[in-house]
Task: inverse folding
């Protein structure tokens, strides 16, 4: 099984928007670019909402059947490890291996020595086509990368082999996530991380490195766009070389996690993938859930009341809801309106505060991030919330499709023209 050149991960917290999501991919294909959907939902999200991975598979299959989609599609076991993978084995055909807990874990001395010996031929000046100047590589650098990432690579190999033993080789896509670390990987570090993964014989097809800047949930990229572009170009060059050097599948490509709403870097991504003729996987994070809340608020009446309740409860329970996301949110409490103030808002006020439109003076990045992590509140509403989604289906669906196509697929893959 080989992943297509372009793909986007589409999360859907409550499994109601599959058709609306897929409609955006149909529109992209009608406009000349084939991007395949990857429905992703993590074990954490399933646990918070009370669903199981089979629900995600059913949603994807239902959407594909409804719209007659005849291209590939995938269901991602998002951010799983050896202790959480079993429930995903049957319904998933894409596995994002999360080895964050093993980054920085001291490897066995023999393993480190073997890795250093394997990489010895790269010590000196490493020439990478596409990078103007050679990269300086010392033995100390190789040892440093090994100490930081070798245990994580070995864990990835362990999890991959477990999945393969249950599903069979070549029946799923493997991604490894190395983005959940404090410091970004330099291109040369990425090269040696890939070297470590190759020694574990992981047939990697996507890898999620850590980039400079902040990829916060639901809002734009925070950082130097020019620096991101330089790193992204160099990482694409590293990927190209690693395919030849280490025997990875020719489909190997970069995955950008928390990639939704990063509007300021989409033109850079578009230029780079064209320049290198490279593939890309972009994993969106909760953007569909936010469109559901926007759609409810637009609908007025009970929908608006529910949207306000989600905000009020999220405001009161901020510490609880934020705990799993502290590294990927930056909510300014002083910028959040009091629930009593929000309760006076009409539909237009609520939508303008929540909808990601940097040109709108009422847009509030802190409010948007707070609602982003507040999906647990709506899950606790049970049928009341689901019923409201069904009543506002047309409004929500239109917003979901427009958001994915106009604000994500089109600028990344078709460009702004």
Result:
């Amino acid at each position: 099984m080989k992943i297509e050149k372009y793909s986007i991960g589409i999360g859907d917290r409550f499994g109601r928007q599959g058709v609306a999501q897929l409609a955006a991919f149909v529109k992209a294909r009608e406009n000349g670019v084939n991007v395949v959907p990857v429905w992703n939902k993590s074990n954490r999200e399933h646990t918070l909402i009370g669903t199981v991975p089979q629900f995600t598979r059913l949603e994807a299959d239902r959407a594909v059947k409804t719209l007659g989609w005849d291209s590939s599609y995938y269901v991602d076991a998002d951010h799983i490890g050896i202790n959480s993978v079993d429930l995903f084995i049957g319904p998933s055909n894409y596995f994002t291996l999360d080895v964050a807990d093993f980054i920085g874990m001291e490897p066995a001395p023999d393993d480190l020595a073997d890795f250093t010996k394997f990489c010895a031929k790269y010590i000196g000046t490493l020439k990478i086509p596409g990078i103007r100047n050679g990269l300086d590589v010392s033995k100390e650098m190789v040892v440093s990368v090994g100490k930081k990432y070798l245990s994580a690579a070995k864990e990835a190999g362990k999890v991959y082999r477990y999945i393969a033993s249950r599903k069979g080789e070549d029946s799923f896509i493997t991604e490894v996530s190395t983005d959940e670390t404090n410091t970004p990987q330099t291109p040369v570090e990425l090269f040696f991380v890939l070297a470590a993964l190759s020694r574990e014989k992981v047939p990697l097809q996507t890898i999620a490195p850590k980039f400079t800047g902040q990829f916060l949930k639901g809002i734009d990229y925070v950082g130097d766009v020019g620096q991101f572009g330089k790193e992204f170009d160099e990482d694409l060059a590293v990927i190209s070389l690693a395919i030849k050097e280490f025997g990875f599948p020719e489909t190997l490509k970069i995955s950008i996690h928390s990639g939704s709403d990063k509007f300021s870097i989409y033109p850079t991504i578009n230029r780079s993938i064209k320049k290198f003729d490279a593939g890309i996987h972009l994993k969106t994070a909760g953007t569909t859930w936010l469109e559901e809340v926007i759609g409810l608020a637009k609908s007025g009446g009970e929908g608006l009341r529910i949207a306000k309740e989600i905000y009020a409860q999220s405001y009161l329970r901020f510490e609880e809801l934020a705990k799993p996301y502290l590294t990927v949110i930056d909510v300014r409490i002083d910028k959040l309106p009091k629930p009593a103030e929000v309760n006076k808002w009409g539909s237009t006020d609520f939508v303008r505060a929540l909808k990601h439109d940097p040109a709108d003076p009422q847009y509030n990045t802190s409010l948007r991030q707070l609602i982003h992590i507040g999906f647990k509140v709506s899950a606790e509403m049970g049928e009341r919330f689901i019923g409201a989604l069904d009543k506002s289906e047309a409004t929500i669906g239109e917003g979901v499709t427009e958001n994915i196509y106009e604000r994500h697929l089109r600028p990344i893959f078709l460009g702004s023209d």
